[in-house]
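Hello forum,

I keep getting stuck at the same step: I have a sequence, I want structure tokens, and every attempt I make locally crashes halfway through. Rather than fight my setup again tonight, could one of you with a working pipeline run this one for me? It's a single chain of 385 residues.
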Amino acid sequence: MNSSIAFLTTLALLLPLPSSAQPLNQGSNQNPANLNSTYNIQQVFGLSLDKRALLGGKVISSAKVTLSAQVSGDVLTITGKEGDMFKRGAVLITLEQKSIQAQRDAVYAEISSANEALRNAGVQYSQSIVSPNSNSMFGGVPGMFSMFTDPMVKMSGRGDPDFDKFANRTSRYTSYQQAKNKLTQARLKLKQVEEHLKDATVVAPFDGVIVVKNVDQGDIVQSGQVLMKFANIKKLQVELNVPSRLVTSLKLNKRYRIKLDMVNIVVNAKLSQIYPIADNNKHSVKVKFDLPENVPVLVGAYAEVEIFETDSGSLMPIIPETAIIWRSSLPSVFVINPQTHKTELRFVRLGEQISDYQKSVLSGLKIGEKIVTNPNIMMISGMDI
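Reply #2:
Ran it on my machine without issues. Output:
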């Protein structure tokens, strides 16, 4: 009897209770689709907007140059680092100059020798004019001996003293011109060496800032090697890609309102350039606006440009701001693929603010597509919704 009671007690303990089995079964039936049921899905609708469009761009430098070494040598000094500002003409890098200075000293000696050779050639040429008989056996005395000997030489047919004098004078003149040309060559060579000596000192081409420094003090550089990149931050521009349909609305030298996101201010900037070729992949045209001077903004900052369309009325996709997430500093939304019902990350170009919680989309999204209106940072492409 006791053994039977013990056996029944053990069997009851081993059997699972119905109440405890229910939560386990529910947990085993859970899947990612049920966990994602908290996400809200909304279909993108269209709205006919006013003639205003907001386009995003970035602040760039109006001038950016790459400073390269014009001569080979050691880097003696580097003034400043990335971010340091310099006035035009300030010395940025100094390269080794001793070898170039030695070349200059050699050219100075060459010029001195050329001057002496020119002086001697000039005297010889003058002698051929003033004293043409200086090469005769009597020491250049053109007296009665020359009067008698010259006709006799002509009559004998052994030569022409007048032509010999002319040939001697021409030879002396040629020597004089050659000496003169050598002096000119030496002076031009000196100019070339002095230019190389000047190239050994790299100076700021305009008021600006060092953007990238590629060498350090003590490095050995070759001619043509990049030393640093220098940019003008006094005159800044805003660069953006405008959809092709909006290009006809733009006018050169006209001022447009630009919001600088970094300092949260709005300025009026002049449209300075419209590129003549459109991007075939993005279907847009690059344009540049000149920002006013002394605007407290850095290169690379985000900016929004307000452009008014000349012809509008078409429907624009409208999405809630909660659906917008920022990946790689670009606005994007998660779109539901109608075939696979999975999420797809889609980069979009935002337009103007429609209301306190809605924005228009210029490109990247179509009316009728379904999007996730409340994505979180854990959401990725390929999730089942």
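The chain has a mean pLDDT of 80. If your local run keeps crashing, start a new thread with the error log.
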